[in-house]
Amino acid sequence: MNFLISGAHISPIYLISVGFIVGVLGGFFGVGGSFLAGPALYAVGVPMNFVVGTDLAHIVGKSIVAARKHRALGNIDMKLGAIMVLGTIAGVEAGAQIIQWLKRTAHIDIAVGVTFIVVLLGISGFMTWESIKTLRLHGHGKATNKNRGREHPSKREPSAAAHIARRIHAINLPPYISLPVSGVERVSVWAILIVAFVGGFFSGFLGGGAGYIRMPCLIYLLGIPTHIAVGTDLFEIIISASYGTITHALKGNVDILIALVMHTGAAIGAQIGATLTQFFGGARIRMAFIPLPIIGVIIIIHGLLTGHSAK
Amino acid sequence: MNREVKGSLKSFVVELLVYATLVVGYFFLVQHFLADWIAHVFQGDRRVYAAAALALIVGQGIALELLTGALFALIRPRMDDK
Fold first, then answer.
1. pLDDT in tens, A91-127
2. Angstrom distance (rounded) from CA A15 to CA A37
3. What's the rounded Cα separation, in Å, for the pair A236 and A200?
4. Which residues of B touch A (CB under 8 A)?
5. What is the pLDDT of residue A311?
6. pLDDT digit string (tens) for A159-189?
7. Contacts of residue B27 in chain A, CB cutoff 8 Å?
8. Do B50 and A254 count as a contact with CB atoms less than 8 A apart?
9. Against a cut of 0.90, is the pTM above it?
């Protein structure tokens, strides 16, 4: 199939398959999946400038499907999401501006690449330790069905790293807010904005939704239950990816037809991924998430070795 | 396999089939009616293109989800009766 805007010639089956895979990952983990979709588009000859913009456009559609499904399952904290939007947009803009400034500096690819490798390996290592410890302390982490319909299962979620969120909840920096949907009695609005800013910053800096940063931040820093972190993260990705789609489309970097075809597969995958979260406990989802930052590390190393920037 | 998991898997497969049918139909519609028009807009006015691109992907996301939800709501009661 010929795509007139980008000039690429790609099989629609390939696009639907790639969309399906990242859709399942997105629905299950609350990530955009750009670390897989980006290289997959590049591999079949989509020009690099179109890869980033087109991927962002398809992420918008996929995240809408997955977020609506998560909302039906009670997995989105709208109050938290609405506050985070402000930090996310500021972070996306800051990340995009800094990458433009850094591009003028020598050896920027190595400096940025090494920083990301350290951050992503840190996240992966910490989540491995936490998930294993939680599963050892609290059993197998399967989703419990005994009280389904009376209480959201994720609110009874144990975590070996709960003390980190407790310390952040205790920060005395008004104004404060309560998040009943997430079971958080009191947290500083600034803590939420900073977490959203960090997620947005990585999104603007590396491209994609940056769910692999925001999702662990929501769980470990703000103490949001895993299922709600996944759903709320998807809500945030809709905002950051929509913003990215508009800015990239204005620069002529979006082939919307590729995004629409990819999204048809992603829509199925996102439904499946979101539905699957019902059958897994939070610790299991966190453990399955661990390879994702490692895949990001591999992509960055590949980019550094071959001279293709991750962005 | 308990009854609840069996029921969920059954619903899951039906949802998947409905989606797959919609996807195939929609794919041909997009290819047939949209390709030339959107390429023309891309060449003509980037601001209109940016707005159209976002509207199309958001619209597709909502439409696919709503349509499947509606069809699934029709199918589910019949499956539960069996």
1. 888 887 777 777 676 666 676 677 778 877 888 888 8
2. 9
3. 9
4. 4-5, 8, 12, 15-16, 19-20, 23, 26-27, 30-31, 34-36, 38-39, 42, 46-47, 49-54, 56-58, 60-62, 64-65, 68
5. 45
6. 666 778 788 888 888 888 888 888 888 888 9
7. 12, 16, 261, 264
8. yes
9. no
CA distance B82 to chain A (A): 22
Residue partners of A45: CB distance under 8 A and separation at least 6: A8, A9, A10
Angle made by CA atoms A152, A289, A298, in degrees to the nearest 5:
165
A296 touches chain B (CB under 8 A): no
Q: Which residues contact A108 (CB under 8 A, 6 or more apart)?
A: A102
Distance between CA atoms of residues A200 and A218, nearest Å: 13
Q: What are the boundaries of each domain within chain B?
A: 3-79
Torsion angle of the four alpha carbons A246, A247, A250, A254, in this order, in degrees rounded to the nearest 10: -70
Count H helices and E strands in chain B, helices first. Answer: 3, 0
Determine whether the interchain pair A1/B47 forms a contact, defined as Cβ–Cβ distance below 8 Å: no
pLDDT digits (tens, 9 = 90+) for A218-272: 888 888 888 888 888 888 888 888 888 898 888 888 899 999 988 888 877 877 7
- The DSSP line for A2-52 is EETTTTEE--HHHHHHHHHHHHHHHHHH----HHHHHHHHHHTT--HHHHH
Collapsing DSSP to helix, strand or coil, A178 comes out as strand
Cβ-Cβ contacts under 8 Å, A63 against chain B: 61
Give the C-alpha separation, A10 to A257, whole Å.
Answer: 11
Option in A145, A246, A268 nearest B50 (CB): A246
Pairing outcome for strands A176-179 and A184-188: antiparallel
Rounded to two decimals, the ipTM of the complex is 0.77
Q: What is the pLDDT of residues A125-160, one digit of tens each?
A: 888 887 787 777 766 555 444 444 444 444 456 666
Residues in Cβ contact with A38 at an 8 Å cutoff, skipping those fewer than 6 apart = A51, A52, A55, A207, A208, A299
